[in-house]
Specification:
Length: about 350
């Protein structure tokens, strides 16, 4: 299958193929004039501070962000801006390789260590998405393409740094839930947790009102940390409306995912989000998806079901991930399958 990048670079392209055209299009997709909303900002340096008062304040803010938004921005996280920029540059370098070079990494199964392709799951997608991707499993074992030169080393360091940030955030979330700081880390075996490096490319689209970068969906793991190349296109669902999300320089966009909703017994909801495309600029994003170990059965924490009955059925994370990634993406339809009626 031809990449969207190659398609977008076709001479005289003025319309998109029918296979990329959504018939029941949502006009709010291109509404960039929505009222400005104040997305929660979490100062990571205070979350790891030795000052108990400062830390208690930011833990409270984190709990409110998780409960009211399922989404927040993390600043002062300690990951060098130069490393974040290098990781994005590496992603661009990969997408700039020839179709033949990228073909080497065309995986078939959702748990293939290295997989690049287009759309979401082109084998089952009824309409294709205006997106190319590279997905690499980087923990508990590190895999990575050997090209472009130096990209693997940058990705290894970046993934390690992000894991430290994730551990700090999850420690704060554990406390917000009234649990020990290391409860999520230990309960879900994050020492062997799955971490995926997901690069997304959304080239300019001649008919952005007819296409979709990624459909409304929630992520399967615990937390996703995302950066982008300065071109907006991420939208989250908040209070029943779509909200445009724009990053602060040198920050992470963080969203709660399905396994954290399950573990918190529904107290913290995974956020539904989507990617929109535009006519003039290439948007690129880099998401680091962080989840439990593949063999961990994830259900509501035992401490959280004493006063509230379990709202979800436990399922092995590997099974959950495979089911979600091999189906059509549709909001929180996968999460609905493990809800207790």
């Amino acid at each position: 299958m031809i990449s969207v990048k190659s398609l977008a670079e076709s001479p005289n392209l003025t319309s998109i193929p029918a296979s990329y055209t959504f018939s029941n299009y949502d006009p709010t997709l291109l509404d960039q004039n929505q009222p400005e909303v104040k997305i929660p900002i979490i100062d990571f340096s205070l979350l790891t501070s030795g000052n108990p008062d400062l830390r208690a304040k930011v833990v409270t803010e984190l709990g409110e962000a998780c409960e009211n938004w399922g989404f927040f921005i993390v600043t002062n996280h300690g990951v060098p801006e130069s490393l974040m920029n290098s990781a994005m540059d590496g992603c661009g370098g990969f997408f700039d390789m020839s179709e033949e070079e990228k073909l080497e990494f065309k995986g078939k199964h959702v748990l293939d260590p290295i997989r690049c392709g287009t759309s979401f799951n082109a084998l089952v997608d009824e309409v294709l998405y205006w997106r190319d991707f590279l997905k690499v499993l980087v923990h508990p074992q590190f895999h990575f393409p050997k090209r472009p030169s130096g990209f693997s080393e940058i990705a290894l360091e970046y993934s390690k740094r992000v894991r430290r940030v994730v551990r700090g955030i999850l420690g704060g979330i554990s406390e917000c839930l009234g649990l020990e700081e290391d409860c999520i880390f230990k309960s879900l075996n994050l020492e062997s947790g799955l971490q995926a490096f997901v690069a997304n490319l959304y080239p300019p689209c001649p008919q952005p009102e007819l296409a979709m970068g990624m459909p409304p969906h929630s992520d399967h793991g615990l937390l996703t940390l995302l950066i982008q190349n300065g071109i907006s296109g991420l939208q989250i669902q908040h209070n029943g409306k779509w909200v445009n999300v724009n990053a602060i320089p040198n920050s992470f966009l963080v969203n709660i995912c399905d396994q954290l909703e399950i573990f918190s017994n529904g107290k913290y909801k995974s956020v539904v989000h989507r990617a929109v495309v535009n006519k003039s600029a290439t948007r690129m994003s880099l998401a680091i998806a962080n989840g439990p170990s593949l063999e961990t059965v994830v259900g509501p924490a035992s401490q959280l079901v004493e006063s509230h009955p379990p709202a979800y059925i436990g399922m092995k994370y590997k099974d959950y991930l495979e089911l979600q990634q091999s189906s059509n993406l549709n909001g929180k339809s996968m999460l609905d399958r493990v809800r207790r009626l």
